[in-house]
Automatic annotation (TrEMBL):
GO terms for biological process: glycerol metabolic process. It comes from Ancylomarina subtilis. SUPFAM superfamilies: DAK1/DegV-like, DhaL-like. Pfam families: Dak2, DegV, FakA-like_M. Residues 12-202 form the DhaL domain. Coiled coil: none annotated. This is DhaL domain-containing protein.
Length: 599
């Protein structure tokens, strides 16, 4: 668009107008976070909207065609949308793209029409639309643009005048929503949209693309709020996902989500949609959804743990581990342990380990799926985000991870810790457990108890480094099928071993590499060998504690518990399903024993 008063809006103008509006959101994250009290008082609306616009700014480039640009903006926003407000904003952009004709440039009349026609898309996306939010403000803005489209011929003037309507609608959100009326705040999502339009108006007024390009080169980080009120959380997990090619209607999908939580939004189309809800059982939800489309992305935030960090910290040292740590949820919750999930894939199906798929479901899929599962490491950015959040509230951080021989998770955590140590000037200790599963669980538990006891950071780390050397795990494999499928055992060797009924015992060496500890011809024989070895290496030592693990084999787990009680005179920390990272190779029926000896 060369001149504003031509009413022709092309792709490049739309792109730079979006960037200008997005920059306003990015620059005002703190204020938006501070006034966020609805639908949940978790002070993250600014961050969520910023994440959504950042996804667009980072992933698309200017294009001369309006239709191409609006489609690209909508797709990038849907992919990067975060939180209730981000998904609603993305759905508005999706409606805008769907209601725009395939043209290189459009008139203001056509733009106003597309804005008006996008409103039903937003209302249809939300299970329970509530007035006095972003919905109302966008609707009021659309109505103003529509009523002016044939009266005033000055596009710049119409946009400037629309700001008055937006600010009036924004002010009224305080009266329309009870939660806002108590605080005197306006709705944070609505204010985010007003700021977005204000950024566009400033751009139209100045018409300085050169300045905007300079601003684009500046990195504006996402800001995490450090405030949260002591409000009861009824649904623990803020859950989001992208689903492709769903085989039910969006309305049916919305009803399924509404039965399992609140704050439900379904944005996009049947070919690709983004869902958002707050729920207590994300794993059951995704198990139910897996046959209704392809789940290509998932994000689950534990709002309870976030709430504890801000308002209910028990100790001044934060403890972090990854999802290969096998420890009961009761202990994880009591000690406020932060567990970061690895990614698990069955072909095109994507899961977050122990969050959107629990071990019992995993073993069902292991047997029924034609695809052998794969795991992927936790990336550095995930740890950077977590550690920056924790470093804002704790005096120190200790992170224990699965062996570095199995995953780059430890390395990525270490890189993130170096950055956070410099930025916050606080100690962040990242430990390679050289182990995993129940052995990692024991190390995490003992560290948690040392923190609880008030030991110094230096003492805790010294003890932990010694404990790493005296923690062992032994896995009795009942069936070699999955070790063969996963490539851990070659097919020819596996065929012969299965033919003669070989049952291997797998352990870890001192460097954290897997070790074939022994071979027997029955699981009972392999377990007897494990018990004998535990007695031998424990001679003259005492057992601090142990964990019994099994892969869909509770009877075998109970028998192992009885035998270990005879040996140690102690009950185990827990008896539980083994981590999928081991179970995917050990297969159904496997039994494992993890032991930590006193030093």
């Amino acid at each position: 668009m060369s001149k504003i008063d031509t009413f022709e809006i092309n792709g490049k103008f739309l792109y730079y107008a979006f960037v200008a509006g997005g920059n306003q959101i990015l620059q005002n994250q703190v204020e938006l976070n501070a006034i966020n009290v609805f639908p949940v008082n978790d002070n993250d609306t600014g961050t969520n909207l910023a994440s959504t616009v950042r996804s667009v700014i980072d992933n698309i480039k200017p294009h001369k065609s309006y239709k191409t640009t609006v489609n690209n903006i909508a797709d990038a926003a849907l992919t990067g949308a975060r939180g209730n407000s981000g998904v609603i904003f993305a759905q508005f952009l999706h409606g805008l793209s769907r209601e725009t004709q395939n043209k290189a440039s459009i008139t203001f009349f056509e733009f106003a029409e597309s804005v008006k026609k996008s409103i039903p898309y937003i209302y249809e996306a939300i299970a329970i639309p509530i007035e006095g939010t972003m919905l109302t403000v966008i609707k009021d803005w659309a109505e103003f643009l529509t009523c002016k489209k044939g009266i005033i011929s000055d596009f710049k003037k119409i946009m400037i005048d629309s700001l008055v309507v937006l600010e009036k609608s924004l002010a009224e959100t305080t009266l329309k929503l009870k939660a806002l009326n108590k605080t005197g705040f306006v709705d944070a999502g609505a204010k985010g949209f007003v700021l977005f339009v204000k950024g566009i108006i400033d751009f139209i007024s100045d018409w300085n693309i050169r300045t905007l390009k300079v601003e684009l080169t500046e990195t504006i980080s996402l800001v995490h709020s450090e405030k949260m009120t002591d409000e009861e959380i009824t649904h623990r997990f803020c859950t989001e996902a992208i689903l492709k090619n769903i085989n039910i209607t969006k309305k049916e999908l919305q009803e399924i989500l509404t039965d399992r939580g609140d704050s439900v939004v379904v944005a996009g189309s049947e070919s690709i949609c983004r869902i958002h809800l707050h729920t207590n059982q994300p794993a059951e939800l995704f198990h139910h959804l897996k046959d209704m489309g392809t789940i290509t992305y998932q994000k689950v935030d534990d709002m309870l743990r976030q709430h504890e960090v801000l308002t209910k910290r028990k100790w001044n040292i934060a403890l972090v581990t990854d999802s290969t740590c096998d420890l009961s949820q009761d202990l994880i919750d009591y000690y406020q342990i932060h567990v970061v999930p690895l990614n698990l894939n069955f072909g095109d199906y994507y899961y977050l380990d122990k969050v959107t798929i629990q071990p019992n479901r995993f073993y069902d899929l292991l047997e029924s799926s034609s695809e052998f599962p794969k795991t992927s490491q936790i990336n550095e950015q995930t740890f950077t985000n977590l550690y920056s959040h924790l470093a804002s509230h704790y005096d120190a951080i200790i992170a224990l991870h699965l062996t570095s021989e199995f995953s780059g998770t430890y390395s990525n955590s270490l890189k993130a810790s170096e950055r956070i140590k410099k930025e916050f000037n606080k100690p962040v200790h990242v430990i390679n457990s050289k182990n995993l599963s129940g052995a990692l669980g024991l190390l995490v538990l003992k560290t948690a108890q040392n923190i609880e006891a008030g030991e110094s950071l230096e003492s805790i780390i010294e003890s932990l480094e010694r404990d790493v050397r005296t923690t062992k795990i032994f896995v009795s494999v009942r069936d070699l099928k999955h070790m063969i499928r996963g490539g851990r055992v070659s097919k020819p060797k596996g065929f012969i071993a299965r033919l003669i009924g070989l049952n291997p015992i797998v352990s870890m060496d001192k460097n954290g590499k897997s070790l074939l500890f022994g071979k027997t011809f029955s699981q009972q024989a392999s377990l007897r060998k494990i018990y004998s070895h535990i007695k031998r290496i424990g001679h003259g030592k005492s057992v601090w504690n142990y964990i019994i693990l099994h892969a869909h084999n509770p009877e075998g787990g109970q028998n192992a518990e009885d035998k270990m009680f005879e040996i140690t005179g102690k009950k185990p920390v827990s008896v539980m399903d083994i981590s999928p990272v081991i179970g995917m190779h050990a297969g159904n029926g496997a039994i494992a024993i993890a032991v930590l000896f006193n030093h």
